[in-house]
Write a structure and sequence with these properties.
The protein is α+β, with helices and mostly antiparallel strands. The protein is built from five helices and four strands, in the order H-H-H-E-H-E-E-H-E. The protein has helices at about 5-15, 20-25, 30-45, 75-85, 115-120, and strands at about 65-70, 90-95, 105-110, 130-135. Strands 2-3-1-4 form a four-stranded antiparallel sheet. Helix 2 crosses helix 3 (about 30-45). The protein is elongated and about 55 Å long. The termini are close together. About 15% of the residues are buried.
């Protein structure tokens, strides 16, 4: 990946909806080479996809919690079960397996505290292999959806 590819990535992170013509102009390339580079970045997996950034609060999802998950056993079966169960919950918008304690950091969004409590009681506490769940409520997001430094 060279400096031009990095410019392309920075531009696409800024505005993923811009046309190839606009992108080529912004990175000072002609249309065909710019298009080839974008396709190559997509094919290599550097660009995984394109999406809209949704304001959760305006979409009716005004409650956000971070959940710290500790599992009972550190074996591949438990990890696989926990990860599949978390992936199956639509309100789980991010889940990361960590080194050390806790085992997972999970970001959950719901409409309200009541909805979060119901999700916690009915789904999260029933995940096989989970030993402990701890929640922290998000006061406000300071940095989110920041483009990667390319």
């Amino acid at each position: 990946m060279d400096a031009i590819d990095k410019k392309i990535l920075a531009e696409l992170q800024r505005d993923g909806r811009q046309s190839i013509t606009e992108l080529a102009e912004r990175v000072q390339l002609s249309l065909s080479p710019c298009h080839r580079r974008v396709r190559a970045l997509e094919a290599s997996g550097v660009i995984e996809g394109y999406h809209a950034v949704i304001n959760a609060k305006k979409a009716g999802l005004g409650f956000e919690a971070l959940l710290f998950v500790t599992i009972s056993r550190s074996d591949s079966s438990t990890f696989a079960t926990v990860e599949q169960q978390l992936a199956d919950i639509p309100e789980v918008v991010q889940a990361q397996r960590l080194f050390g304690e806790p085992d997972y950091l999970v970001k959950v969004v719901t409409r309200s505290l009541e909805d979060y409590q119901r999700l916690f009681d009915e789904r999260l506490t029933g995940i096989p292999g989970v030993e402990r769940l701890r929640s922290t409520l998000v006061m406000r997001n300071v940095v989110s959806d920041r483009p990667l430094p390319v």
